[in-house]
Amino acid sequence: MIWVGILGPKGNFRETLSKLIAGHPEAQISTMMDPQEICGAEEYMCGSYDTKPGYRKIVNAVKKSDIIFNGLSGAMAEDIYSKALSYGKRAIDISNAYFGCSSEGRVCGVYPGSVYGLPELYKNKMKTAPIAANPSSRCAGILLGLAPLAASNLADADTAIIESRSGITSLGRYDKISETDMTVNGGSKIYKMDSNGYAEEVNDQMHALFGRKVSVSYAAYIIPGFKGITTTIKVNPNTDLCGNSISDIYGDFYKHSPFIEVCSNDTIIEGRNGLEECLCKIKASINKDNGNITVTTILDDAVKGAASQAIQTMNLMCGIDSEIGL
């Protein structure tokens, strides 16, 4: 049995993650704590380690667990990872803050062997990683959409124009939105999200994918009532491709990835088609007029975009089939 500690996450993500672990045949929750149960960040910094409020709770949680899902940041995260490694435990960062840096940055520098990426793309490295972290749900849809093109150098990454659409529920606590003059059916206003942080994350991961620095055009929109995250990627090819060959390329790349569904060119994929599933649906096509590539990905931001990829990561780190519990 894998004993799992959940420290810090709240809202839809915590609920979804807890449900998945509850239904996992080889995992069980050993401890679950809100940030408030540990104490505030300022309080946490007061006093010595032995007397510091909340520190003993973290130590006890780590001791009782084989693997920790950590949604905390700052000094509390540092202590969790330090204690986990000292006790021979492993951790998965789910804060979207602490590991929101390049794969060459803090995660690898401070904790050698750690991995920042998606289970589909870093399967072998995750099996031995002491600490792992997954990209944000918005970044996940982009990376899964571009990975097959990057693997065979089929696209000019510098020409990529990326747009994501999602609902209010996908917003993080630090996300900011502003009004636009656009509306959708029924008159619902479309909001533009300040996506600079996500664009930086995307560019860092694109660097890892394509092996060089790239800077893509990225915009994110929030549509009230919209479900899941739909990402559209338009990019120029490096070679001539046809509609059937691009679908075959994606199908071959993801043939051993059970949570990726590559859809045919005549399939219409919409946001509601990928909801409440541990799947990312992908459709790739070629524009007959200009030869450009268009890729659409759809995933549920709380399930495949976050919780289920965290469970996939746990399964890989614990040496069991990535499909178990999903």
Secondary structure elements and pairings:
Layout: E1 2-7, H1 11-22, E2 27-33, H2 35-38, H3 41-44, H4 55-63, E3 67-70, H5 74-86, E4 90-93, H6 106-110, E5 115-116, H7 123-128, E6 131-133, H8 137-151, E7 161-166, E8 177-183, E9 189-193, H9 196-210, E10 217-222, E11 229-235, H10 243-253, E12 260-263, E13 280-286, E14 293-299, H11 303-317
Parallel strand pairs: 1-2, 1-3, 3-4, 4-6, 5-6, 7-10, 12-13
Antiparallel strand pairs: 7-11, 8-9, 9-10, 11-14, 13-14
Strand content: 15-25%
| CATH third-level topology of the largest domain | Dihydrodipicolinate Reductase, domain 2
The side-by-side strand order for the widest beta sheet comes to: 8-9-10-7-11-14-13-12
Low-confidence stretches: 98-109
The helix count comes to 11
Give a short overview.
This protein has 326 residues and is an alpha/beta fold. It has helices spanning 11-22, 35-38, 41-44, 55-63, 74-86, 106-110, 123-128, 137-151, 196-210, 243-253, 303-317; strands at 2-7, 27-33, 67-70, 90-93, 115-116, 131-133, 161-166, 177-183, 189-193, 217-222, 229-235, 260-263, 280-286, 293-299.
